[in-house]
Amino acid sequence: MQKGFRFSIDRGGTFTDIYAECPNGKARVIKLLSEDPHNYPDAPREGIRRIMQEELGTVIPADEPLDNSHIEWIRMGTTVATNALLERKGEKMALVITAGFRDLLHIGNQARPKIFDLEIKVPETLYSQVIEVKERVVLYRDDCQLNLETEMVNGTTGHKLHVWERLNLDQLKSDLQAVLDNGIRSLAVVLMHSYIFPDHEQAIGQIALDMGFSNVSLSSEVMPMVRIVPRGFTACADGYLTPCIKGYVNSFADGFMDKENLKVLFMQSDGGLTPMNKFIGSRAILSGPAGGVVGYAITTYQQDTDHPVIGFDMGGTSTDVSRYDGEYEHVFESTTGGVAIQAPQLDINTVAAGGGSRLFFRAGLFVVGPESAGANPGPTCYCKGGPLTITDANLCLGRLLPEYFPKIFGPNEDQSLDKELTMREFEKLTNEANEFLAKQNSSIPVMDSYQVAMGFVQVANEAMCRPIRALTQAKGYDTSQHVLASFGGAGGQHACAIARNLGMTTIFVHRYSGILSAYGLALADVVHEAQEPCSEIYGASSFHYIEQHTDTLIQECYKSLFAQGFSQEEVTITPFLHMRYDRTDCALMCTAASHGTVDSCCKYGDFKAAFTSRYQQEFGFTIPSRDIRIDDIRVRATGRACSHKPTPFPTPTDISPKLTKVIKCYFDDGFYDTSVYLYDNLVYGHTIPGPAIVIDSNSTILIEPSCLATITRHGDVCIKVDYQSTPSNVGLELDTIQLSIFSHRFMSIAEQMGRVLQRTSISTNIKERLDFSCALFGPDGGLVANAPHIPVHLGAMQETVQYQLHHGPVLQQGDVILSNHPSAGGSHLPDLTVITPVFYAGEDRPVFFVASRGHHADIGGITPGSMPPNSQFLWQEGMCVKSFKLVSKGKFQEDGVTELLMAPSKYPGCSGTRNLHDNISDLRAQVAANQKGIMLVSELIDAYGLNVVQAYMQYIQENAEVAVREMLKEIALKVKGLTSSTVLMAEDKLDDQTPIKLKVFIDEKEGSAVFDFCGTGPEVTGNCNAPRAVTLSALIYCLRCMVGHNVPLNQGCLKPITVNIPPRCILDPSDTAAVVGGNVLTCQRVVDVVFKAFEVCAASQGCMNNITFGDDSVGYYETVAGGAGAGPTWHGRSGVHTHMTNTRITDPEIFEQRYPVILNKFHLNHGSGGDGCFKGGNGVFREMCFRKPLTLSVLCERRLTQPYGLAGGYPGATGRNILKRKNDNTLLDLGSKASAQVLPGDCFQLYTPGGGGWGDPSNAQESPPPTKRARQFAERGSVATYQLLQESA
Description:
By secondary structure, the protein is an alpha+beta fold.
């Protein structure tokens, strides 16, 4: 029985929503501004006061503490932590880290977030000071041949470790005191391997608390998981945010009379509630949106259908998308505000389309976001000088009715939404678009403002559909077989269109959809989790260990929940194992709840069956012969706080709903008479055919034509969508709106191909590093869409497809081509390209082509990995093939391709492929990805017709051409103003002094250019020769960077460009020339030369620093970051990958776990960036000690030629490769390219190049001049993580 008021509060960035259950059974809803200091100090407390005052009938003063004797409980979700992280307004803190790693969290994974941004913007680190503490533990290895006479200890997993250096307490105390003297009271402690050896962290933590630090976040306690970088980020986030949260919690509690007996629970990122004294920063990032997921999960799943549910929460700045199928989907690492948080979080994917997303017309395309107008100034209709947004578009189309909005807009916050102002701004934008299009093609029909507004809405809808497809199809689910649960302030206006685009037939809008995050808090459970690392192989021998440690974690959970008043009957325990196949990185958190016990499993269920069935679902295969390794044991305990029963809705007395008014509303094909209903007038059983609008106090629901809404027993709105009701009426003539939509559709095809390839491949390179690209091509082989944007793949596949058209075999349906030869459009040999023609009924020739290019870890040659540093001939680098029918008439030619992969063994000193099984499996995956592309292309043709699809393919290419021409015209004007000429020139040299010369002739009228590489040096005897396709990829990359905004990256980009490359030069070598260095080194120099000619920015490190070592049992290959070049308004970023590469680096703990090495140091090489008005970024210093005899190889550049500075800026420092011999401490300079035998104790020291500076150093600026940056949404969730991974492959 309810004892008092129950308050569920969602404190958002703009509004605070409160759902209250009163003792008399009444439900109350109130919405307040989160910040309104003139009227109240705290929105949640003010909302509680107002409701209690009205329900109790007594005056409660606003400035006195509230009597909480009337309150049973309060539950809250808050964005306090998220906002503090995004805005960098957390507690000032310091980082304590193992000596030698002071810059580790600055370097992070070394990848840049936006690959085409020359000014690399990475959010600043959270800590203000760093203490390097002298201490070190090293993992024990059976194959270690170092004489380590050190103390041996056992880690928490039972693994042995060497205590290489004990904790230096005297120096530590001195350093901590210096931090305290600077006014810092919060500390994050992150030490190497502390996840299994926490002793040193615990000692530091106790000393810090004794000295007076108020908050100490130990990485081993915050999240004891392997990988020091994300664990370190998580500890820093905890130290940065927890004091803010504690401050808010305490100030909130201070507003009540008896705060000792105040029962407040906070929502955590994992969808569970926790007492306010246990609410910490690292678990609070998704506190706000998590309530919405719980809300739709419990109210929608299995209400009307057994289908799983997609949550669609569209707000002002962005849209959150998630999925529920009876269990909450969690991720255990996600990035928010540039910080990787390693903690259980609901998989909530934020996409760049909210009501406040800005509208742009760029070079013939309709573009929505990612910039947002925010709450202030907000959309144009808010009357505060804001830009046009999606909200304005909906207002223009008649979908929002100003008379039903409160008068809170304008400078004095006393006006209605201003539709007239919105219409005037749309007229300006419409005129701008029509003028631009008329210049391009006078026959294009003139658009009116309504068509333009509708176009932006359609583009926004398509943009939101792409991540929903990715979220479902990435895990092997059919998007159309889901229910769409729409909530949030703007979701109801777009739900019907989103569902129709995705093939969904049911939409569910809860009665409290406008405040569902608050309502969800009333339904949530209290959760306590416990977790510890593990390193066991799953099997009978480990069952006792699993059971013993799970039992311990379960008791910890019971103890916590019992202390909160739960009985054992109210607690549900769910054990999890974090499992992966041995020698892979793809771990899945598995519960055996739906897999009962069998003879060959532990008492908590058949985790092997759970793992293999989920692996099969997500990836399409299993690896029966491979051991399954356990990384972590986790227990999630839920305490059922209350059983919530929704109040039934009244039964109708009149079967017809009360009509409020009829208005004109614009849809795809014009204006419709649209009925308007007030939600308060609707009752159970009412049906409302579209078009119609349903309005309540917190949201507007648009029911589109051919849709039917029904009011359910509990007052929710269930909408049935007639998916077949909208046949295509798109014509052959160019429609700018459809151009923008087709741009999304074509890219979506390439993205979905990539998802299939990632799911069905088996190798680490493709499945986990995502080193692949998928693309769609026209019937002439011209690139239409390429995803993802791996720079070195850009445009290169087009050369491969067109080679097959001109020189390959005649293709029939069921044929698939394999190619990797540089003269056939290949990049380097390990990149295998699989090409499939797309045939369509009634057509004799292919109507499209689809292709996938994946980096195979080994294809034979003179060294493992097929990337030898000293190759002189192509055959030394592995299998090479110009054209081979991998599939002929539908039959996979396994014998033939096996013969090709083993063929390198015929050459002296060479081996065939060393991993045939992975090669074959990945090639099959590439064929499957292409087949997915064929299916999607065919569906598109079925919907629109072949002529229309091919017409828009051509329009998309022409649009990219227009964007590049406009950019070249702008550059020509700028250059001519400075030099009176439109000819640009530049030259740079490789370390062997081979020149790369470029002369650019720009036609300022046509917007075209000739890139002439005459004078470039001849092909070399080494492997720095770059295939022509690689040079073209570098040019497309440069052009995209200089355009400065998103354009379709396709054949059209190069149409205004003529490229002259002398045959047999280093950029177009002979058929037999070695090329592996050209793909990873020379391409960087091509970019440097182009940017030097255009004077865009100073040179970046100009190298990928390829480092390999290994023997017959182990092999390692990695590229290492350096310094980025400065520009006219920015400093170069330090310790980051630049231009044609963006690979992530292996985490130091994983590095030492997998390989017989010790990473002594990894930090920035300070002073290596070039001086200037704006300074170049610093390179890095990395020292590793070998634990057994190995072969070390380096393949590098910029060891002799410095990265240039521009406009008077100084060059960056060159890199160095130093081998330090243990026996006599001899230092050997290995030069740019070399191999050496290393012995136990030898150390390799890598100094990577810095970036060049920009401008006269005498005008040096500590920080760039402030620029007004548009507000952007914060990407997060598994879809955003996948995209970041692909762009860092």
